[in-house]
Amino acid sequence: MRQTDGRIIAGGILIGLGVLFFVQSLAGADFIGLGGLWGVIFGIAGFGFLYVYLRDRSQWWAVIPALPLLGLAALLLLGDVAPGVRDVFGGALFLGSISLAFWIVYWIRRDFWWAIIPGGVVATLAVIALLSNILPGGETGSVLFLGIGLTFLILYFLPSDRGHQPWAIIPGGILVVFAGLIGLAFGAASRFLWPLLLIAAGAFLVFRSMRSSPG
Q1: Could you tell me which residues come within 8 angstroms of residue 108 by beta carbon, excluding any fewer than 6 positions away?
Q2: Residue 129 CB-density burial (10 A; 0-12 exposed, 13-18 middle, 19+ buried)
Q3: Which of the ends of the chain has fewer CB neighbours closer than 10 A, N or C?
Q4: Predicted local distance difference test score (pLDDT) of residue 29
């Protein structure tokens, strides 16, 4: 990114914040809550980083702060607009935005296979946060091990020119089996675990067939 572009972005952010605070002063404190105000600030910062990437696609790093900042902005704005929705989906929304950032980094740079690990782990935490709000008191330990295990299995099944990691099948397989054992111990968790395990097993057969088929 050129120095001129950085100054334009910084200047635009400062102008936007100045206008926002000015309108806030004119309209009074009830115009937007403190959480919503910070939401707008984080949103502007997120779009600023997103502009850095869109302006220069080689600046892939800008996606990592952009998406979480936008997710945090949405979380804070929901607190003012729909606090009930925020209480149920807020944690999953914010964690999901962090996960999405790493998946986009991998999509941009297929040689960055390492981005799948934080992307999958944080996506698992997002699912757990959502399940904890929808099913309070439910056992989510099996979901944690299953999600992390599937993350490593994704690394194993990636085509070799995109970061195939043979070692990943060992922690992936162990964690998936461990998740199954926990699911057996907790009946409530097994309602969700076994369908996911069936999906994982089906995906394993499909990917193995695709890799072994000629051409």
Answers
A1: 57, 60, 63
A2: buried
A3: C
A4: 47
